[in-house]
Amino acid sequence: MTFLRAKSLFLGCLTAAVCCLFLSGCEKSGKKRQLWGGDEEEKLQVAIPASFTADSIQKLTVKLDSVFRHFHKKRGFNGTVLVTKYDKVIYKNAFGLADFFKKDSLTVETAFQLASVSKQFTAMAIMMLKEEGELNYEDSVQQYLPDFPYHGITIRQLLTHQSGLSNYTYFSDKLWPNRNKNLTNEDVIQLMVTHRPQPYYPPNTHFDYSNTGYSLLASIVEKVSEKPFAEFLRERIFDPLEMKHTFTYSPDLLTLTGKIATGHTRFRQKRTTDYLDTVLGDKGVYSTVEDLYKWDQALYTQKLVKHETLAEAFTGGILHKKKNQTEDYGFGWRIRPLENGDTAVYHGGLWHGFSTYFLRNPKEHSALIILSNLPNGSFSYLQDLRKFLYPAHPDSVAHKEQKLAVRGRRR
């Protein structure tokens, strides 16, 4: 009996110790689950109008197919597209080639370099860490990167492009001695520490789109999480959302499995990567239209952050707007009114032979996702697409302005 009591006591202590270790680990790396309880799957709902029927969907799908086939044949569009409405995919297709030399056809499972559309993932990483109490938007950059030589710049200013910092993609051309050696995020910081390139503006005085700011945000994520930025994105965003064809650029990109598009010049010549590609945060994420649809749908849930946390990413943060400026910027998202009066959040990207565009209309849970590996100006039709998908109401100001413009052209 003494032995049995001793054994029972030992097992009880062992179980308690394991539970303590488990809870300690959760407290350190899984704060979001403790904060949210059972609400992380709660999805924002949208009212579906009676007019959104199987017949209307079919007609819209046929029209979209006609539109994109025209863009492909007449305007040289080469890429993939996915369109949703009320959370439902109503059209997806691929046009052209993944590699013009190899003649590989594109599919909707082909991954493209997202260019600046990558910024929304960097912003999400920051929001996740903020929600977990690891940082605050008003913290200075020096709190995480002590050697950073510019004072008075906050995380919020990096997120909203109001830091005033000069663009690393320009000053690196002058300051990086060996173009055959890849530049890293840490190298960008060291170039700034050593050479102190002149900022464009004092912080918080101008909106000035900044790749430098988002590369610094990626470095802050690394510092706070104590893991590489690419690993953070994979473990905390891509894997949980089952974005199986989404990854970040690395020099051994060719060793990855799956279909990957090759970037081209507008003359269909292959674009090669260079020393700037290894800087992450401002660019560098590869994904497919289908994986981006998973990302789009996740943003209506609390799988990554709470609804109120994400709402700030979709809230304009530009302090000093220009006269008649209708567009704003949140955290990794541009914000603009649509022709029908709704407000869209969107971002475009252009980098080394890739053009990308991702627009969401949260009011009706719709999205327009376009990925291209041939930046030949074929994205000039985007305004026409928006007008088609979100037409102005007959009695709206936008509709009247459109009619006046048409009359003016006829004269």
* Widest sheet, order of strands: 2-1-12-11-10-9-8
Radius of gyration (Å)? 24 Å
Beta-sheet strand percentage? 5-15%
Q: Kindly state the mean pLDDT as a whole number?
A: 88
**Secondary structural class:** alpha+beta
Largest β-sheet summary = 7 strands, antiparallel
Number of helices: 13
**First-residue to last-residue Cα separation:** 104 Å
Unreliable segments of 5+ consecutive residues: 1-38, 403-411
Q: Assembly type of the shown chains?
A: single chain
Helix content: 25-40%
How many DSSP-defined strands? 12
State the order of secondary-structure elements, H for helix, E for strand: HHHEEEEEHHHHHHEEHHEEEEEHH
Shape: globular
Explain what the structure shows.
The protein is 38% helix and 14% strand. The protein is built from 13 helices and 12 strands. The chain is globular. The N and C termini lie far apart (104 Å). The model is unreliable at 1-38 and 403-411 (pLDDT under 50).
Question: How does the SSE layout of this entry go?
Answer:
Layout: H1 2-29, H2 31-36, H3 54-75, E1 79-85, E2 88-95, E3 97-99, E4 104-105, E5 112-113, H4 119-131, H5 155-159, H6 168-175, H7 185-195, H8 211-225, H9 229-238, E6 247-248, E7 285-287, H10 289-298, H11 307-313, E8 328-329, E9 334-337, E10 343-351, E11 354-361, E12 366-372, H12 382-389, H13 397-410
Helix pairs in contact: 4-8, 7-8
Give a short synopsis of this structure.
It contains 13 helices and 12 strands.
